[in-house]
Amino acid sequence: MATTPLAHSPQPDHPVYVIGGGPGGLAVAAALRERGVRAVVLEKSDAVGASWRAHYDRLRLHTTRRLSALPGLKIPRSFGRWVARADVVRYLEKYAEKHELEIVTGVEVFRVERSGADWVLHATGGRRLVGSAVVVATGFNHTPRLPEWPGRDTYEGELSHARTYRNPEPYAGKDVLVVGIGNTGAEIAADLADGGAKRVRLAVRTAPHIVKRTTAGWPAQRTGILVRRLPRALVDRMGAVMARVGTPDLTAYGLPRPDTGLATRMREGAVPVQDVGLIAAVRAGKVEIVGAVEAFEDGEVILADGTRIAPDAVIAATGYRRALEPLVGHLDVLDGRGRPVVHGARCPREAQGLYFTGFTNPISGMLRELAIDAERIARRIARSGARGRKGRGRRT
Asked: Residue 224 and residue 353: Cα distance in Å, rounded?
């Protein structure tokens, strides 16, 4: 991996700037380099794959090794079918090194503006960088979101976001409430139950679709790829049948089957939960399902049914914001939820040369779609003539 000092390019053509050194940004940079387009990756942390470095220890890819590789480098077979978090980081480091990517770390871009046919990036230290095109790859899970629960700010108990959770060791012997039953909340609850927490409760507002990661050797991801283009109503019906056949009914444990179809929920932005231990933990009584959190009061947590509990710790697995407003919000390229109006090789109508990758959460697998988008974006940029020298970077 080459890290270079920032300076204005002396070449007539400015480079393509890629904002974010995660899988999406690295994949685009590699695909551009393959086509002779100079791409400079700007990463605000001190290393690539920053978000993966911060994830909890238990985490493994929910997608298979073979369907998760980025363009130009397979994931080593030794990493196993379900790649561990630490191995994802190793893979991203190797990826940047193999492709000799030009990466500048420790630089955060605060604002992107149009300047004629070029783009101006305002970054750390008052830098003003000019690029022929910009690819925003700052990540789907960018800024932790903590709901504005009444009484939250005066609550004196232990309250943290799932972003800071690493392993169950600090919670041994404690009563823990996990809030939110997305994949992160489900995995953390199971991890705590297996790791020595005295009591684990999981607060649920809306029952999720729970799917097995693999059935008879067939990964759920491949099913997601096959059904992605099918009509929503058909996928909803198929999902209901698959649920009845493949996963037990947990209604007696407080977790009924959802009354909204799988594809419908996906369209609303809710991905299914892949079971990596939650079902067994719930059936064994190691994880208790409780109502949604409504408020904090007098050192207690008030649930939707009026129940008041006093856990030793509350871990909020309540999601993330894209936090793109300061960066590009003034360009009228975001929808009402703060997500890009287009992604991949398409540019917003009034912002040609501005691309977004990694801001959807597809059932077919995030890394797979990042790889596909990278190739498409690179082809579009190369054809547009936004190219400079093939930068190999220089070590410092």
From this structure: 31
Per-residue b or e along 275-288, where b marks 16 or more CB atoms closer than 10 Å to that residue's CB: bbbbbebbeeebbb
Exposure string for 22-51, b = 16+ CB within 10 A, e = fewer: bbbbbbbbbbbbbeebbbbbbbbbebbbbb
Q: Which tokens belong to 385? A: 């003539």
CA distance 82 to 289: 27
CA 333, 319, 302, 292 torsion-angle sign? positive
Sign of the dihedral through C-alpha 296, 58, 288, 318: positive
pLDDT tens-digit series, residues 332-390: 999 999 999 999 999 999 999 999 999 988 889 999 999 999 999 999 999 987 434 34
Using the Cα atoms of residue 327, residue 333, residue 336 and residue 337 in order, give the sign of their dihedral: negative
Residues 6+ apart with CB under 8 A from 244: none
**CA dist., res. 192 & res. 57, Å (int):** 12
Residues above pLDDT 70, as percent of the chain: 94
Tens digits of residue pLDDT in 158-199: 999 999 999 999 999 999 999 999 999 999 999 999 999 999
Single-letter code of the amino acid located at 235: V
- In sequence order, the 6+-apart residues with CB closer than 8 A to the CB of 138 are 19, 20, 22, 322, 323, 324, 327, 358
Q: Where are the beta strands (DSSP E) in 69-132?
A: 102-105, 109-115, 118-123, 127-131
Which CB contacts under 8 angstroms, 24+ apart, belong to 3-7?
A: 3/103, 3/104, 3/105, 3/393, 3/395, 3/396, 4/40, 4/102, 4/103, 4/104, 4/393, 4/394, 4/396, 5/104, 5/396, 6/104, 6/107, 6/123, 6/127, 6/129
Residue 100 to residue 199: CA distance in whole angstroms: 49
How do strand 199-204 and strand 175-179 relate by DSSP bridges?
A: parallel
